[in-house]
Amino acid sequence: MKHLENDSFTEFILLGLLQYNPTHFCIFVLITMMFLFTLTGNSLLILLILVDCHLHTSMYFFLWQLSLIDILFTLTSVPKMMTNYLLHKEVISTSDCGFQIFLGLALGGTECILLGLMSYDRYVAICKPLHYPLLMNWPLCRQMAVSSWTSGIFNALIHTVCTMRLPFCGSKEINHFYCELPVVLHLSCEDTLTYETGILISTTILLLIPFSVILASYTLILVTVIQMSSAEGRKKAFSTCSSHLTVVSLYYGAIIFMYMRPISSHTSGQDKVASVFYTILTPMLNPMIYSLRNKDVMRALEKILCKCLLYFKM
C-alpha cells in the first residue's frame, strides 16, 4: 500500500526560505544581488584564467574548476527559489526534485575533493618549490580533476537513485528552499537507518578524507612559512593560505553539519541556514577571496580592461 502511495507522488511542495513580508522581501533582493554577483564574479574569473597565459598553472586550473562548480551549484537551487517566491509557486515535480538532489550531491562532492587537491597544490608550491613542476604536471592535474568529478557524480547517482526509490507517504511538504537529500529523507515512511549509515560512510570518504588532507597540508605549510627568512615571502604565503582556509572553514563546516548528523536530529531552520552557506554565500565569496587578494588575477583583469578600452576608443 505504501508503494502505491509513493507511485501517486508526482510532485512535492517546497515551502521555501522566505515569507511574504517586507523584511523577507529585502532578504530576497539581497539574495538576488548575491546571485548576480556570484555568476558575474565566477564567470569573469574563469574568463581571466582561460585567456591569460600567465594564469595557466595548476593552481589556477583548479581555481577555474572551483568557479565552474560554484556557478552550477548556485544555478541548481537559487533560480528555482527566486521563481517560486515571485510567482507564489511552491510545487516541484519529483523528477526535478531528483535532479536537484543529484546536482547538489555531485557538485558538493566534487568541490570537497577539489578543495583538498587545491590545498595539496599549495603544499607542494610552498614546501617543495623545486619539485613543483614535476609533482604538479599538467597530465596529473587533469587526471586529478577528472577523478574528482567522476567520484562526485558516481556518489550522487547512487544516492539519488536510492532516495527516489524510497516509498513516500503522508505529507508532500519539503520545508526547505530546494530538494536536498537529508530533507527529502524526512518524508519517507520507511525505516532509513541502514541507508543513513551508507550516507555517513560515503560522506566520511568525500568529506573527512579531503579535510584531513587540507589540515595536514596547511599544518606543513605553516611550519615551512614560520621558517622562511623572507618577511615578504611569509606575508604572501600567509595571505594565500588564509584565503583558502576561509573558504574551507565556511564550506566544510556547513556541509559536515548538514550531512554528518542523524536525519532525526535535523530541524528546518538549521538546515536552511547551513544550506545558504554552501549554495549562496561561499560561491559568492570565492571570486572575491581568490581574485581581489591575488596580484596575478588583478593584473590579468587590468590587461583585459585596457584592451576593452582601446577597442572601444577605435
Automatic annotation (TrEMBL):
It is found in: Cell membrane. This is Olfactory receptor. Keywords: Cell membrane, G-protein coupled receptor, Membrane, Olfaction, Receptor, Sensory transduction, Transducer, Transmembrane, Transmembrane helix. Belongs to the G-protein coupled receptor 1 family. The gene is LOC113928626. Gene3D superfamilies: Rhodopsin 7-helix transmembrane proteins. Residues 41-290 form the G-protein coupled receptors family 1 profile domain. It is a multi-pass membrane protein. It comes from the Eukaryota. SUPFAM superfamilies: Family A G protein-coupled receptor-like. GO terms for cellular component: plasma membrane. The chain crosses the membrane at residues 27-51, 58-78, 98-120, 140-158, 199-225, 237-260, 272-292. One of its GO terms (molecular function) is G protein-coupled receptor activity. Putative odorant or sperm cell receptor.
